[in-house]
Write a structure and sequence with these properties.
Layout (H helix, E strand, L loop, with lengths): L1 H28 L15 E5 L12 E8 L2 E6 L3 E5 H4 L12 E4 L3 E11 L8 E4 L2 E4 L2 H8 L8 E10 L3 H7 L3 E5 L2 H4 L7 H10 L24
Length: 230
């Protein structure tokens, strides 16, 4: 009898420890200051969709974060080109015929809203810096000036729609490890092979070991690396 009681006591003690560990893991997974990557969310980083993310709007997508604040977050999907020529998609945009690149799908929100990303070392008026030498253009006037300037083909990408999150929404998705966070790179944004961007970044991201053991889909800032197009 005594041995049975000891076995039961040992089992209950082990169960209590297991439940405690499980509770701690769950609390860490949704702690904004915890080691799951939320602290690395900011303007100018890439979100790489985890392989388990099956939402058709975001599956295999790479998103550049343009804004991350307590009110919410905004970003552009940078790896989904369409087969719609800019001249056809934006007939009122002067100089659109100079660009051979098509319209890009920026996200499911505000599909009638046009946003452009500009890569330049000379800051034009009416644009906002995202990171390094990459700027966002939200008004037609500076966009027209860029398109009508020298060599616009290598400097501008135009997107229809954007990705948007309410307060805390993106934090929750990162806590679920729906996204890999990595440092953004201009070469990736303006890649000549946008359809191959997700696979390239995802494979490279998986090779970086997360030092805090939060799982293979999180790359902490300590291990952020620049990724370059081959």
């Amino acid at each position: 009898m005594r041995s049975d009681i000891k076995r039961i006591s040992a089992f209950l003690a082990a169960l209590a420890i297991a439940l405690f560990i499980l509770a701690m893991e769950e609390s860490l997974a949704f702690d904004p200051g915890g080691p799951v990557g939320i602290k690395d969310l900011k303007k100018g980083v890439f979100l790489i969709a985890a392989s388990k993310l099956y939402d058709p709007h975001f599956s295999r997508s790479v998103i550049l974060i343009l804004m991350y604040e307590k009110e919410g977050a905004l970003g552009l999907i940078i790896n989904r080109s369409t087969d719609i020529p800019l001249e056809q998609a934006l007939p009122g945009l002067k100089g659109a015929e100079r660009l051979s690149s098509p319209l890009f799908y920026g996200g499911p929100v505000g599909r009638d809203h046009v946003t452009a990303l500009l890569r330049t070392d000379k800051l034009p008026e009416g644009v906002k810096r995202v990171f390094d030498n990459v700027y966002v253009i939200e008004d037609m006037r500076p966009l027209i000036e860029v398109i009508q300037g020298a060599d616009p083909e290598k400097k501008v990408r135009i997107y229809s729609g954007y990705a948007g999150w309410g307060p805390g929404q993106l934090d929750g998705e990162v806590a679920r490890r729906d996204w890999i966070i990595v440092t953004a790179d201009p070469d990736i944004i303006f890649s000549e092979n946008p359809l191959g961007v997700w696979e390239e970044l995802y494979k490279r991201g998986r090779k970086i070991e997360a030092y805090d053991q939060t799982g293979p889909d999180y790359i902490p800032s300590k291990y952020h690396t620049k990724v370059r197009r081959q």
